[in-house]
Amino acid sequence: MASQQMFEREGKKYIILQSDVEYVKVNKSDCIRIGSQKKCINIQKALNQHKIKEVIAENEDDLFGQKRELFDGKDSEYSVVEEPIVDEAERTRIRRATNGIVYFMPVDQFRAQVYLVHGLIYPDIYDKPGLSKDFDDLQRNSPAELILFKKPQVPNNNQLLLKILLHPDEITANAEQTGNVLYLSYPLPISRLVGIDIPISAGDLNRFIDGWVKPDVPVPRHLFSIISDLLSTDSENNAFSVKERNSDQISEVAESISKYDRYLGVMAFIRNAGRYFSQKTGHYTDYPAEYFSICERIVGQLDYDSSKCSTIHPLFLAFLDIVDQSVPISILIKNLTQSEEPYIDKNSARAIATEIYNKTGEKVILADAFKMLFNEDYRQAIHLLQKSDMPDEAAVLAALFKYSNRQSNDHRTIKQRFHEDWYNSTRASLSLAALGAYYGYTAMDARETSLYSVNPLISSIIEERPAIKFHLETSFERQIIEGLYQRAFFPGENIADTSIFYNEFISKLNPILPVLPKLFIHDASYKVIDLWVRQYNITPIGRIIQRLMAWNRDTIDGHSEVGQYLFMKLFSYIDYEVIRKDGKQIVLYRIAKRKVIDLIKDNKLDINVSAFELLLEDDIKRSEQ
Amino acid sequence: MAFEFHLPSLEEMRATPAGMEMLRMIDDDNFRSALITGVPGSGKTTVSIYRLVRLYKQQANIHFLTFQNMLVLVIRNLAKGLKVPDSCVSTVNNWYGQHTGTRIIPKTAERIIADLDLTSLVDCRLDEILIDEGQDLPLCIFEAILCYANRCFVGADNNQQVHDHGAGEAQIEKLLANKYTPYKPFSLAQNFRNTYETYRFARQFIPEKNLVAWNSAILERLIQSNRRGPKTTVITYKDVVDRNAHLRITLDNAEGNVAILCPLGPLPPFNHNSGDSVDEIYRLITGMGFSATIYRNGIDVPTVIERYVVTTFISAKGMEFDTVIIPRINFWKMIFEEWYVACTRAQGRLFVYRDKNNPQCDPIARFDPDTYDSISLESRSQVEPETLF
Predict the structure, then answer these.
(1) ipTM score for this prediction
(2) What's the CA gap between B116 and B22, in Å, rounded?
C-alpha cells in the first residue's frame, strides 16, 4: 500500500504517511509493515512513530475528496478559511470543478513579505534590478521562473514555506515539471497563497507574526501555522537538486505586472472611500457604492442585493482597461495615471488642463480654478472644481497633480484633509481611483494610518486602521484579485469564473456584529459572497446628539432657542428660580446638556426633530460668533 | 492634526544601498551587543525605531534612549500609532531619573551600578536596550547600564558628536566587542532622503570648495534612485503683508508634517526682521488659525507635537518633514551650514521666502535660477509665463 492510502480498522480510519509503509489487513494485532522488515508493528506503535495517522472525519467524502490531492500525503497543516455549509451534491460539484492543487515554495521570509507587498508571486527577473540578489532561497536559482514543489520542503531558519494553489490547466500551459519540482514561467496572484508555514525554530507563532511591522506588508494572520514535526522527517527533500536555469525576461509579462499593479492599486485605494466622510455626512460604509458595481465588471455577477449597485462612471472602467474610453480628455487622464515619472510636473498638468478647458466650453470659472491650482492653492481650486458644471476630469487632474510625488508621503497625506477637500462623493472616489492607478498597489500602505474624520457615534465600533491592501480574509477578495490578474496577464481571453476555484476558501466565520443603538444609527449592512459590508446611517436623533455633544457649553438655559423649546417639555428636570427684575417676575432656569442628551438617548424626550435641529443650529451659530 | 512619523516601507528600504542588510538587522536577535554606525541620514535611527516597534509588539521588555528631546517626542508620536507606550522611550537622564529618583548621572560606572542595583532593574532586566546617538554618552554609562539588559543595540556616529565627554564610536566598539559578546557591528552607507531637486538647490548654500556637499556622485545617485520631485519654490517679496498673505496659502496647502524654520529662537531686542525668529513666526501663524508646536532652546519641551512645527534651523537637525517653509531666508550673517541643514530637512516640498529689501543678505542671489521656481509677490504678471493658467 502506497503513501496517502487509507485503511479502516476497528471502526477507525487511518492514513499512511510514508511510502514504505504497508497495512497488512489479515494480521490480527501487528498489522503495519515497514519497508522490507518481516515483523510488523501494531497500530499504536505506528502512530507513535508517525508512520500512520488517525483521520478524524465526518464522512468518507472528506477523506478522499479534495484534501488528498492537496496534501499529497502529508499531515494537514492546511489552514484554509473554514468552508461554507453546502449540501453534499453541491460539495461534490465544486470539488470536481475546482480541482486546485497545492504546491509548496520555501522562500526567504523577506521574499514572502515582498510578494504580499506586491500582491503578486513573481520570479526574480521581474524585480527591480539587483533587489532580489540578497534573498536566501532556491528561487534565485531560476530567476525567470517560480520554483514550486509537489511535496512540502523543510525551510531553513530565515525561510517560510508558502502553500500555493495552482490550477491543473496552468500547470500544463505554463509550467515544466521535473520530478518533484515545478518551474512556472508566469507570476501568480497573491490570491493563490493559501498557507504560510514557519519553521519550528522561529518560535512562538503569534510572536513571529507580531514581528512583521513594515507598513506596506499586509499580514494575513489566519494563513500562518507552524510547520509540522512530521515534515522535518521527510526523506524525500530534493530541494537541492534544483538546477540553475535561464534568466530571460518576457516583455509582455513585465508589462502585465505593471498593469496588474495599477489595477490592484485602483481597487485598493477606493475601497475605503465610504469611510472618510462619516463625520460630515452621517453616512458610513466599508465600501463605496460604486465598488461592487466595478467588481461585477471584473468577475461577473456577484451574489448580493442588486439595489446596492450604482452606475459606474466610465473613468473607473477606463483605469481598469475594461472599456476603451472614447472621450479624449478621459484618455488624457488615464494616460497620466500610467505615467512612470517620479511626479507630474506643472507643464504636463497644464497641457492637460488646457485641453480640458478647450474641450469643455472654455468656462471662466474653470480657468480660475486651474490658475489657483498652478499657483499652489489646491484647496481653493478643488472646491471650485467640484461644482456641478465642472467636468469630472478637472477635479481628478487637480488631485493627481497635487499628490503625484512618489518620493514622498503623498499617498498618505492625501487622506489627512480628504474629508474637508471633497464634497462630491463620485469625484472623490474617481480621484482616489486615479491616484491608486498612478501610485500602484506596491507603493501603498497595508492599512490606513488613521481615519481622520469619524462620526463619534460610530467611532467605537469601527476599526481605527482599516485595511487598504488585500489581507486574503475572504473568498470575495481572492476572486477580485484573480479577476484583475486574468485581466492583466491574459487580456485577450475571457475572464474565467473563478468563484468555484476559490469556493474552498469561503469564510463562514461570522463577523462580530456590534449591538447598535438603533435610535441613533440605522444599520443597512449587507453581505457580498462572504464579505460582510457594514453600512451605517446616523439618524436625525443621532445627528442632534452629535451636535449637542459638540456644542461648546455644559448647560442649556432660557437664553437659548433650544432652552426655550425644552422648558415646558422638561419642567420636572429643570433647575429654576424666580427673580424679580424691574418689577417683573422672571423665571431663570437651566438644565445640564448631559442630562438632555441622556433623556434623548433613553427616548424620554419627545421632540420635533426638524424643529429641534434648526433651533440647535441657530444656537450653535450664535455661540460661535 | 498631530505630527505623523512614518517608518519607511519594506520597498523603500529594499531600494536603498544597504536595504537588505538593514532589514535583517531589524530582525536579528542573535547578539549580546551590536553597534550600528553611519553618517547622518543613513538610517541608524530608523533601524533602532523599527527594532523598538518589532520587539515591543513581540512583548519584549525594552527601552529606547536618546539625547534629543524632540526625537523622544517624535518617536513617542510614532509609537503611539503603533501602540508602543511613551514609557518605552526617553532621554538618558529622564530614564535614569525614573529609576533612581535623580536625573543627575554619576561619573563612574561603579556609582551608577550602585544606584541602579537598588532599582527594579535588578529583578526585571530589560530584554534589550536601544541607544541612539551613543557617541555622546560617556563610556561609564555603557559600562553600567548594559548590565541590566540582555541585549544592547547602539547607534553612533563620530561626526555627529556634540558632547566632549561622549565615548565616541571607537571606545564603544572596544567595550562592546570585548565585554558584551557575541558582538555584531553594522555599518550603513549614506542614504539621502531629499529629492535631486531639493539637494541641488540646497547645496548652493555651501561654498563650492566643500567637496563633500558638492560631490557630483550625490546628484548622480539621486537621479539613479529616481529621487525626483518638484523644484524648490522661491517667493520674492518686498512687503511683509504680501508675504504673510502668501504664507497663509502656503501653510494651508502644505501637506503632512510641516516645518517652519527660522535662524533665531527668541525675538532679538532690536534690528530684527519678520521671519528671523521662531517666537515671532509662531505667533504669526497661530494667529492665522493654524495649530502649531513651538520648539527651541530655552523653553519647555512640548508634550504633544502638531503637524506644524515652528523651530530653528539648528533644532531641526536630524529630523525630516514633508514640507519645509522658511519665512525669510535673508540673515545678517552667512550661516551656510544652517541654511543647508534647514533646506535639506525637506523630504517633499521646500518653500523659501526671499526678502528683496535686503539684497546685501541674499544668499539666493548667486544661485542658478534653473534650480528653483520663482514667484514674485511684487510684480507677479512679469514673472509668470504667458499661459492661460
Answers:
(1) 0.92
(2) 33
